[in-house]
Design a protein that fits this description.
Low-confidence stretches: 1-21
Protein name: Xylose transport system permease protein XylH
Helix content: over 70%
InterPro entries: ABC_transp_permease
Keywords: Cell inner membrane, Cell membrane, Membrane, Sugar transport, Transmembrane, Transmembrane helix, Transport
Membrane topology: Multi-pass membrane protein
Organism: Bifidobacterium aemilianum
CATH architecture: Orthogonal Bundle
Largest sheet: 2 strands, parallel
CATH class: Mainly Alpha
């Protein structure tokens, strides 16, 4: 199996070449991508259910902002976990590493007087070191990732207890602003709505429409079955409604002095764009899919599988450090208990989003939708005041259902 073949198998939205140009029917598109579209429908269904159960409070503008601020760790760590799972591995140490890195950062700022920007660089460096530590054992010693990261979970939870103790409060206002503040309101308020948010929303709508039309044109010119124009129009209408409504919610969030786009949402957006490009447009991304799809074939094709595994965990360490920075900024204090079950939320998001248990399959958009489903579950149950035990039970059932669906789908195809 070649690298390009494996990479294409990992992207569920890739078109299938036929004997000439033409248009696929809407039925072919729906049934051929039922898993991809099903994830989006599941997200809408979950939102509708909790909107009803919370008496309409779930989609209050400030609650939507809180959804991203409080669940940023899921979105960020799910990106790294997706790459780990595609590569046929798993990382159980995420929550403990978040607690340890957050504890070290808070300790450095409070006890060493370290500048907040220098502290961020320091925390990112620690994340890379931890990622390299895990990558070394997995890639070059051959210890299974499950065992390596299980050990890491215990090691870094213990170190977090030593460093953070009961709690280390933070006083740095600029650092705390990362997870709590908004982009500067440079365009003012337009009739009570943040002007910058409205402009960004309009630009996003235009870019999405141009992207869909361009994708169809490229498919036709390449001799590949393209989506019918009627289907493109339907997708554009749905995208306009979704982006327009999200723009309304963010533009009307905040208070009389600030609101609009939260800083943390910009960080998440940049990470999604960067890693979508990495997985779909770089050699490293194609190598991850190749290794996950068939490791022996990848080795025979000349791919350095050990280096790929090492880079996967190095990257996981970096993204975990970013999640630690966001979490520490939001909580404004570091404790040894921070990050409990973060890894479970990230793993669940990937499986819900279509990542295969056996590896080799998964997409950034799918993982982000899965992370949003987990975020809506967290937010909705929190608004309802549900007991923590109920929250865990529901999450567990969702994970089992997602994995079971993946396995059943594969059996049917076989």
């Amino acid at each position: 199996m070649s690298t390009s073949q494996t990479a294409s198998s990992g992207a569920s939205s890739a078109p299938v070449k036929t004997q000439g140009a033409g248009e696929a029917s809407i039925a072919e598109l729906l049934f051929g991508n039922i898993r991809s579209y099903g994830i989006y429908l599941a997200l809408v269904l979950v939102i509708v259910i909790f909107q009803i159960l919370t008496g309409g409070r779930l989609l209050f503008p400030n609650n939507v902002v809180a959804l991203f601020q409080q669940n940023a760790y899921v979105l960020i760590t799910a990106i790294g976990m997706l790459m780990v799972i595609i590569g046929t591995h798993i990382d159980l140490s995420v929550g403990s590493v978040v607690a340890f890195i957050g504890g070290v950062g808070a300790f450095a700022m409070k006890n060493w007087g370290m500048n907040w920007m220098l502290a961020i660089a320091f925390m990112l460096l620690i994340g890379l070191v931890i990622g390299a530590w895990h990558g070394f054992w997995v890639a070059y010693v051959g210890v299974p990732a499950f065992v390596t990261t299980l050990g890491g979970m215990l090691i870094f939870r213990g170190l977090a207890t030593v460093v953070a103790g009961e709690s280390i409060p933070l006083q740095s206002r600029p650092f705390r602003a990362i997870a709590k503040d908004y982009l500067p309101n440079i365009l003012g308020f337009w009739g009570g709505f943040d002007g910058l948010t409205i402009v960004v929303g309009l630009v996003a709508i235009v870019l999405v429409i141009l992207s869909m039309v361009r994708k169809r044109s490229k498919a036709l010119s390449a001799g590949v079955k393209a989506e019918p124009m009627s289907w493109v129009i339907i997708k554009c209408c749905i995208a306009v409604l979704a982006i327009g409504y999200a723009t309304y919610l963010f533009a009307s969030s905040g208070n009389a002095t600030q609101g609009g786009i939260p800083i943390v949402l910009v960080v998440i957006g940049l990470l999604i764009g960067i890693y979508w490009f990495v997985l779909n447009r770089t050699v490293f991304g194609r190598d991850i899919y190749a290794v996950g799809g068939n490791r022996k074939a990848a080795m025979l094709s000349g791919i350095n599988t050990r280096m790929v595994d090492f880079k996967i965990f190095l990257n996981m360490g970096l993204l975990t450090a970013i999640a630690a920075i966001i979490t520490l900024s939001r909580l404004a204090s570091a404790t040894a208990a921070t990050g409990q079950e973060f890894e479970m939320d990230a793993i669940a998001a990937c499986f819900i989003g279509g990542a295969a248990v056996a590896g080799g399959v998964g997409t950034i958009p799918g993982a982000m939708v899965g992370a949003l489903i987990m975020g809506v579950l967290n937010q909705g149950l929190s608004i309802m005041g549900a007991d923590a035990a109920i929250v865990k039970t529901i999450k567990g059932l969702v994970v089992i259902a997602a994995v079971a669906y993946d396995l059943i789908s594969k059996r049917k195809k076989a």
